[in-house]
Amino acid sequence: MKIITLVGAPNSGKTTLFNYLSGQNYKTVNYPGATVEYHAANLQKRFGLEAMLLDTPGIISLVPTSKDEEVTIKGIYSHPHYGAPDLVIATMDASQLSRHLLLAMELKQANFDLVIALTMVDILERKGFEIDIDKLQKILGVPIIKIDGRSGEGVDELISVAKRKLETNNKNLYDIKIIEENNQELLNLYKEIEKIEAEVIRPKKRGFAGSYKNILHKPDELTIKIDKILLSKGWGFLIFFLAMLFFFSSVFWLASPLMDLVDMFFGWLGNFTKEILGHGLISDLISDGIISGLGAVSVFVPQILILFLILGLLEDSGYLARGAMLIDRPLRKIGLNGRSFVPMVSGFACAIPAIMAARTIPNAKERLLTIFIIPLISCSARIPVYALLIAYLVPPENYLLSGLILTIIYIFSITISLTVAGIINKFRDKVIRETDNSTFILELPTYRLPKLRVTLSNMWTSTKVYVKGAGPIILTFSIILWALTYFPNYNPQLDKTQIDAAKYENAVQIERINGSYAADLGKIFEPVMKPMGLDWRVGVAILTSFAAREVFVSSMALMFKATEVDENSVQSSIIHSMKLAKNEDGSPMFTTSSIIGLILFFIIALQCVSTMAITKRETGGWRIPVLQFVLYSGGAYILSVIVVNSLRFFGVA
Fold first, then answer.
1. pLDDT at position 29, please?
2. Does the residue 159 lie in any domain?
């Protein structure tokens, strides 16, 4: 199979093109012996070209300036798994030609069989300039195709050129050369690049007066006007807060209709299963173990879809980069800088890719400090837990209040993470063991209208990854927990004269759960749960959530389902059961104070084995993940106990 390697500078449209060509059916892999990622995928069949496509991390030159770049560049010359590429497609931003020509010219000098995909031509034209592609092709001596990786414009022509190249070339005949650092050659290249840019870039209108360079390299006018507001000291933070408030409110009100449908479907499916199969081991396993467990988490998939949709819109529009600029100054005070913003924002989706995204931070101290606080960022796995607990406190139709509470939760999680970063930074020589600092330079992308098709595709892909990752874990633990609550399945002898006939079956189920293996396990931890105002059932649910936070919801569905009274949906059934739950003294178990305590616990506690594993891999040992687990989970419990009892002391039930 032919190998096509995509190469380009950051923000040149390389990964967008890769996604379009691969249809996002790709796998993410590390280079052997390194933490640097690359994406590999087969070209979509509709292009009629059988080839493996490799997407490499963004670089600006074939001369490496860091260990990560060295791994990437070696992979371009000869990949550890696939060898040397048959063809290199280099993306080049037409609006930043002077900066992106260097890599293209180095690839040409290295004798790669090269095709250039010219991107961002619309931005160049918006500035009032056009590019002479024919002249640029003659100067560089390689095919140049104008494309838009978001809409697919020009991609068919790019593939046609790639086919012709692959049919005629033989990579074994090419003498690929290593480009070595040489300041004089680099200076000569830059002079040549200036001449090329002057020859191929020209104003669209005649009678142009003045220095074209000043205008060509000037940021987009519309972008400047917008940034004067969005990056201002006063309005910038206010707009950022309002945007986040809208963001989290929409997670509720946009997803609510879909959530109701999913909830009703799983409720109906569970009841239908019992009607068809009757009561018995297999029926209970399917309805209470599998359907109820999956339904308790599937109901929150619409919210996760909305989360990824809005994150995608913010990123594609260019606003996320502005967020990095806004918080760069406060981050500096705690030993970080704006580079930490993207990994931290990625943490809203999942801590695992967020921790891996910290690889882009070249400074060791800032990278390790960012990794250390990422588990405190509220990821999408916490959304099912927050949504359930907030739904207990707030009527489901009050979207604004629910969104406000969720916004406060996220702001609190960010505040906690920054506070921890500040404390750890004070003791960095003992915890992080790195003390060097760095500067922060960020290229702000031009504001662009997101391509809805691309954003929706990314949203769907991210959600599928989440479901595939969480689904098997949830299903496994749902079945295990069902077995623990079902067995030994003894038949309690209750006095029917003392119990209302309509509630007799529920009372029997309660007694069965109280005599189950889950009860035996949970009662070991009950002394730990009592200070939080909870009992062994919640303890079992929390214990299972350390495999994956989402499991907490399905565990609650199983542990409290015995008190269900003619409910048609899973979520409302859990909430109804929680409202009926009592402590041993007869007092309500779930109150405002105990719910707040649970929310606090889930904000802070490290309950993800996968996160610990990836942290171990990225930091090179177990010291930091173990320290995170002890500090965050222990601190979460202590803080929850203090808050619950303080609220009760001041009269909050």
1. 47
2. yes
∠643-645-651 over CA atoms, to 5°? 105
pLDDT tens digits along 316-338: 787 877 777 777 777 777 777 77
pLDDT digits (tens, 9 = 90+) for 608-640: 777 887 788 777 788 888 999 999 999 999 999
Asked if 115 contacts 165 with a C-beta cutoff of 8 angstroms, the reply is yes
Q: What is the 3-state secondary structure (H, E, C) of 254-272?
A: CCHHHHHHHHHHHHHHHHH
Half-sphere exposure (CA, 13 Å, Cβ side) for 541? 25
Q: Is the dihedral of CA 191, 192, 194, 195 positive or negative?
A: positive
- Residue 240 in any domain: the answer is no
Of 586 and 219, the one with more pLDDT: 586
Domain range holding 131?
Answer: 2-216
Going along 43-149, which residue ranges are E strands?
Answer: 51-55, 87-93, 114-119, 129-131, 144-146
610-to-116, 617, 623 alpha-carbon distances in Å? 40, 11, 16
- Residue whose tokens read 């070339």: 169
* 3-class secondary-structure state, position 504: helix
Residue with tokens 């077995």: 483
Q: Count how many domains the chain has.
A: 1
Asked which of 51-55, 327-331, 568-572 is least confident by mean pLDDT, the reply is 568-572
Q: Which two tokens mark 65? A: 């300036």
Residue 283 lies in a domain: no
pTM (whole model) above 0.70: no
Backbone angles phi, psi at 31, to 5 degrees: -60, 140
